[in-house]
Amino acid sequence: MESFDRKNITVKERLRPREASNKPLEDKQDKGGQTTPSTPQKKGQEIHQMLADQINKGRRDGIGGKMLKEIERQFGCTFIQAEVSISGYAVGNKTQVDFWSGTMDAVAFRRSEEDVLQVFVVDWKTTSKTDCQQLENWWTNATNFKEPLYQCLVYRELLQAHLKHSKLNANVGIILVPIHQNDPELSIPGLCVDFKIMDNMLLLDKLKDLQWCSVLDESSFAYTIKLPCKLFKESFDPAVVVAETTNILKGDTRLKDIFNDNATVEDLRQVLDLRVLKVEGIKEEES
User: Fold this and answer.
1) Residue spans per domain, the chain
2) Of the candidates 46, 56, 57, 1, which has an alpha carbon nearest to the alpha carbon of residue 21?
3) Whole-model pTM?
4) Rounded to whole angstroms, what are the CA distances from 199 to 18, 22, 93, 154?
């Protein structure tokens, strides 16, 4: 994908049988000495765990450590934490709110040439597909990176919301790292910090239509209704009934204090774009 700056990385050191702590891809032996092939899912989990341990323990040894160190050198970044939980809210039209949560494989950061802080959502993508033995093929086949890309884009929105809430000014990017399970010494990671191409391709439209929040507040549920001046009393004073910091109409405001005595149901119906306002029944409130 054109948005990503891709690097070819090769860690020359090969795995040795005695290096038990750094052999995530070897088949296992049971007590009877029989070899049990590891499943692709198991191998992928082992690679993820190997990289997470290296990052969280601050180590850069073995195949995983050397791979991380080379990625850091090529992109000028630093991995700071792995297996990072994140959650937040996506607020749509009116009161539609979706809760999102997940775990980022890792988070990295760097300073740009303009001294701007850049933070990256990192995703390891292990594969056992034979057509991806040459990792360039992973990048050329959209079905390989479509799902992880969208997941990272959601994490990016959530991370931006958290940074904004913390008043930390930073650009948030993505690093995708495809790794073939049969040859973990090779990788072609890609880094994206400029999303203009994706934006022009309309890939971000659905995400941009939502308001992303790290926490919910009353303003998250507010939506705009334009009311004509003729509905309001001439004495209506927004400074009295509207909260200064949020522009939200105070809940204890009496409607008769703001609406004109001549305002009609037809006026309200037209403003709210309703065909009719129907009364199904009137029930007295219990005292």
Assistant:
1) 5-213, 225-271
2) 46
3) 0.70
4) 49, 40, 21, 14
